[in-house]
UniProtKB/TrEMBL annotation:
Record's compositionally biased regions (Basic and acidic residues): 1-15
Region (Disordered): 1-26
Pfam families (UniProt xref): MIT
Residues in MIT domain copies: 34-97
InterPro entries the UniProt entry points to: MIT_dom, MIT_dom_sf
Protein name: MIT domain-containing protein
């Protein structure tokens, strides 16, 4: 490092690093699995409440955490098939909801065109009535 720069604490090359305690990787996996469960619960809650954008976000986050779990355990782990099945289920659901969101957006666009057309028709009707009233008055 150059003069005036300081290293972050705990990164000096000469410092000895303590070995990870037994089961530390399992603890990390356990924490990831717990996080995946929590995210999945949030996704289902938002899905149930029809908050599609939030549900999609949390389904994707769950998918990402399950990917990390699978990278730690490997495909040969006894829990890998269950995690893989859930991972696919959550991504499929996220895609289904994304499709629904896009369809809703498309429908909203059509509705705004329709409401724009409706407002123009109402304005034209109003102008026609005014013209007819003025015509009757001479």
């Amino acid at each position: 490092m150059s003069d005036g720069e300081s290293e972050p604490k705990g990164t000096h090359e000469d410092e000895s690093t303590a070995p990870e305690p037994p089961g530390a990787a399992d603890l990390t996996l356990h924490e990831l699995q717990s996080e995946a469960r929590h995210l999945a619960q949030l996704a289902v809650t938002f899905d149930t409440n029809n908050d599609l954008e939030a549900a999609v976000y949390y389904y994707r986050e769950t998918w990402d955490v399950l990917n990390k779990c699978l990278s730690i355990t490997g495909q040969s782990s006894p829990t890998a098939p269950d995690m893989e099945a859930k991972r696919v289920e959550y991504m499929t659901r996220a895609q289904t909801l994304m499709d629904r969101l896009m369809k809703n957006e498309s429908n909203r666009g059509n509705q705004s065109v329709n409401s724009g057309e409706t407002s123009q028709l109402l304005r034209a009707e109003c102008l026609l009535r005014e013209a007819l009233d003025e015509d009757q008055e001479g």
